[in-house]
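Final report, Chapter 2: Outcomes

The project's central promise was a pipeline that accepts a single protein chain and returns its three-dimensional structure in a standardized token representation, suitable for archiving and comparison. That pipeline is now operational. To close this chapter, we reproduce one record exactly as it appears in the project archive, with the input sequence first and the structure output second.
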Amino acid sequence: MEPILKVEHLTKIFHSKGREDYTAVDDVSFSLLPGEKLAIIGESGSGKTTVVNMITRLLDATAGTIVLDGQEITEIKGRKLKEVYRKMQMVFQIPTDSFDPRCTLGDGVAESLVNHGMSKKGAMKEAVRLLGLCGLSEEFAKRYPHEVSGGQCQRAAIARAIAIKPKVLILDEATSALDVTVQEDILNLLTELKEEMDMSYLFICHDIALVQNFCDRVLVMYHGKIVEEGIPDEVIQHPKQAYTKNLIDSVL
């Protein structure tokens, strides 16, 4: 089976005038298989978000390659990114970051559909359907981000992200700003959507306990490197690195 996303020898070095160069990501390689839920975990500063920012082309890589659905996207910029984002979407840690505060949730979900050629009327109808798919009634299409709870806004953000039927959904700490009960609801929703829409997930998180029952495989990052990987239960029960053990002990 060919990976839907393949990262090879990805490296990011930040250069700062008058300061020593900082290697945020150091020779990272991994693959995401079709239908897989893959977690990257690590404490703040481990490099996991920098990896995501390179994959989504928000940052240029210093070295390495990124291949999405058979196409190398490592240096793609400008208008060509529109086709990349047809296949890959992202859900952020802070739900309101996905929306313009001056627009309703319905407008926010419909926006990407309009940008890809759907009529405004058709896009709004589809936005209502997508919000419903994510557990929000039609009335939420008329609400603004500040008028709903964090969990409700994150459901709307997921509806926005899946609107153009991406093959890869990247979730960057997408549940960490929510309370435990809402976290579980969102993870259950994501599980249902993955089966229905045949997506692959790249789940960025600092909490290994959170991904234990959600993800198929986990990568552990430390100081810009992948130091451990495996099935979550195996990594939790038999960590090979002291860093991984400390990370597990801090949340279990």
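Archive annotation: The radius of gyration is 18 Å.
This record, like all others produced under the grant, will remain available to the consortium after the project formally closes.
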